[in-house]
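Methods: example folding runs. The two proteins below were folded one after another, and each record is reproduced exactly as written to the output file, sequence line first and structure-token line second.
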Amino acid sequence: QERSNPISPHIKNSRMKWIVTVASLLCTGALKVPRNTTVATSVLNEAVKLTQSDVDVLHKKLEIVMDGLDSMVKGKMAASKIAPELKEFIKESKEVLDQINSIKDPATAMEKLKHVKAGMASLTSDLATRQESLMKEEKSQKVNLLLGVLMTH
């Protein structure tokens, strides 16, 4: 006979019960997750066993993206309003990518690469938000222009 789970008595799947139980424990604070990222990273690395080739693959991808962004900023986007911020982002990211070459521990190198990757995700999100606001602004300007034209007639 299966014990009843007071947290989720209506869930029959044992894996789902386990997930719900862990999530409940995390939410209530009964189960603590280590806040020390070094400990969490080392535990994860033991489970995954990062290799230098994993670091090299991500490093190469990020270098290609940074080189592409750099050529865009120096070319078509040179006069844009966001060019100075992009240049600074690219400069800082390339500095981190250059530092990776001297790091011998794959876990530490991967951690730094993931920070660069997270920065790129944040940049992408910020650019999408900015594009959306520009599109709304453009639409608003068109509506105002049309209203002005209609009011003059």
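Second run, written to the same file directly after the first:
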Amino acid sequence: ASPKAKVIAPSLPVPEAGFDLDEAPKPGARERAPSNTGSMRAVVFRCTSATSGLRRHDRRQIWIAEGRLHICHKGSMTAVKSIVDLCREVDESQLVHGNVITLFMRRPAGQTSEVKIYFFEFMDDEIAARFQGEIVRSRGQ
């Protein structure tokens, strides 16, 4: 299987070399680099559920600043795809496998809301734990 389609487990090798983090951001993407003050950032794999666990889908940067999670487009360090209000839009957050955070979110979809589940795999357990702690603090739990 290719590195992007690797099924993840609790201890994974460092991502493959040669991955271009700023390849082809989507048209109309919001360019907004995170400030260093009061923000936490990481390059993560966004994963999808698979028959035998989770499968790496793409790599992107995410960051938390001022109670919001900024999720970049796949392969980008600066082109923001979504900004999530951690207090209002995240129902639950779990740290699993030591380095994977699962987010259960509600996003507006017309007059209703859509439930989305995101899996973010971090490069190591410590960074994942720090992000989870910040998510919990931002949500006031």
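Comment on the second run: The longest strand covers residues 53-65.
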